Amino acid sequence: MNTKAIYAVAGGIAAAAVAIFFIMGIGNFRPLGNSEAPGTSQTQIADLQLGLRDIVVEKTDEENANVQVVFDAHNPNRSTAILETIHYTLDVGQYQMTTGDIGVSPEGFVSGQEDIFPIVGNSTVTLKDTQVAVRNNLTASSWDSMVDGTGQYSVEGSYSYRLTGSNFQTSYYEKGFALTFP
């Protein structure tokens, strides 16, 4: 019997187990406590919490301004969540000033991972997006209030994420949001 092959297979299995352990999160590998009976659900899955940290406006010329929207996404669960996308519109008063997207929806197992955001259990990530807001005759007063720092913002949209529960099942969620700033 070839012992090198046996050691190689055992090492591969051990490496895969360690990788799964870190990807799924430590919270999925806890023993049943005294208060939980076998066969009952171990954890409640809570929605990711999305908030606005800041909106920064920088005038670039008389008709354009860069608008940076800064989101905080908090994962209140024990397992790691994968935030895939945030789609939003930013309004000042009754006028839509800009729209934006953060992230991408992965297509298949081999798609790139650079535009999705893992959020370890009970932690928060900060995500930023910058778009251009254009001043015109219709939006002039709202655009001016953004540039002079007095704008009242309404940000609406949706976000999507995946979360793995204690039974190793991954679930997809898409949620809407409506936030104001300040």
Mean pLDDT: 82
Number of helices: 2
User: What is the number of beta strands?
Assistant: 8
In the predicted model, the low-confidence regions spanning at least 5 consecutive residues are 26-41
3D shape:
elongated
Hey, roughly how much beta strand do the residues contain? over 45%
Radius of gyration: 22 Å
Q: Mind summarizing the main beta sheet?
A: 5 strands, antiparallel
Oligomer: single chain
Q: What series of H and E elements makes up the topology? A: HEEEEEEHEE
CATH topology: Immunoglobulin-like
CATH architecture: Sandwich
CATH class descriptor name: Mainly Beta
- SS-derived structural category: alpha+beta
Total tally of structural domains: 1
Distance between the termini: 70 Å
Helix content: 10-25%
Describe the structure.
The chain is an alpha+beta fold and 182 residues long. The chain has one domain: Immunoglobulin-like, CATH 2.60.40. The protein is built from two helices and eight strands. Strands 3, 4, 5, 7 and 8 form a five-stranded antiparallel β-sheet that branches. A three-stranded antiparallel β-sheet has the order 1-2-6, with helices on one face. Strand 1 (49-59) and strand 2 (64-75) form a beta hairpin. The longest helix is centred in the first third of the chain and has 22 residues, at 3-24. 22% of the residues are buried.
Write the layout of secondary structure elements.
Layout lengths: L2 H22 L24 E11 L4 E12 L5 E12 L2 E9 L13 E3 L3 E12 L5 H8 L5 E12 L5 E12 L1
Antiparallel strand pairs: 1-2, 2-6, 3-4, 3-5, 3-7, 7-8
